[in-house]
Amino acid sequence: MAFLQAQFLVSSAGPAGMPPPGPPELAFAGRSNVGKSSAINALTGRKRLAFTSKTPGRTQTINFFDLGGSARLVDLPGYGYAKVPQALREQWRTLVGSYVSSRSTLAGVVLVMDARHPLTPLDVQLIEFLGDVRLLALLSKADKLTRAQQAKTLAAVNASLQAEVRLFSSLTRQGVDECRDLLERWLDAPAPRQVA
Q1: Closest residue by Cα to residue 74 from 33, 118, 30
Q2: Residue 1 and residue 180: Cα distance in Å, rounded?
Q3: Can you list the domains of the chain with their CATH numbers?
Q4: Which of 11, 54, 116, 139 is in the most buried spot, having the most CB atoms within 10 Å?
Q5: pTM here?
Q6: Any residues with CB less than 8 A from the CB of 32 and at least 6 apart, and which?
Q7: Cβ neighbours around 100 below 10 Å, total
């Protein structure tokens, strides 16, 4: 259970500050305040590994977490928060773009989307940008939906994506063990990547 050995490794504000490629990495992406940090904390069984905030746009760096030397989790800055200056949004886009396009050790991306508002235009843009990277669409805050709404949302997102799709709640722990098992399988058998 590599996830339960998670430790903070380093924060990077640019490509030069990233640790050299090593073990396989899983990157977490999503809109600002969608629950990325909460998902990381739930999957690693920690309360304060990734810092959560009520203020959207708080994560402005790429944060790397080591999983006992065998793998890494990567928390990417959130996107799509209107109150952030345009220059800062461009800086984030460049930072995330350079990571995703150049990281040969990227084993997959976990796209965290609010189950009440999945597949926003920015989510779709990111999915298209990722190309052939393995993708897990995590429908977070699933506890805010009724069972019927969960089933309907899951079916709709499944129909729209060539990806793994799971309902998830860091509050009720719905989907936590299932997602962790899937991601550990990805880390055990990372798909080789051709990068620029």
Answers
A1: 30
A2: 9
A3: 2-188 (3.40.50.300)
A4: 139
A5: 0.90
A6: 56, 57, 58, 78, 79, 80, 81, 84
A7: 20
What whole-number distance in Å separates Cα of residue 98 and Cα of residue 43? Answer: 26
C-alpha 56: how far from its chain's center? 16
Among 122, 125, 32, residue whose Cα is nearest residue 77: 32
For the chain, where are the alpha helices, taking DSSP H only?
A: 36-44, 86-102, 121-130, 147-160, 176-188
In three-state secondary structure terms, 144 is: helix
pLDDT tens series, the chain, 196 aa: 689 899 999 998 888 889 998 999 999 999 888 888 899 999 999 887 876 554 444 457 889 999 999 999 999 988 775 566 677 667 777 788 888 888 889 999 999 999 999 999 889 988 988 888 999 999 999 999 999 999 999 999 999 998 999 999 999 999 999 999 999 999 998 776 766 5
- Residue 80 to residue 78: CA distance in whole angstroms: 7
Q: Which residue has the tokens 């746009």?
A: 57
Contact partners, residue 49, CB within 8 Å, separation at least 6 = 6, 8, 40, 41, 65
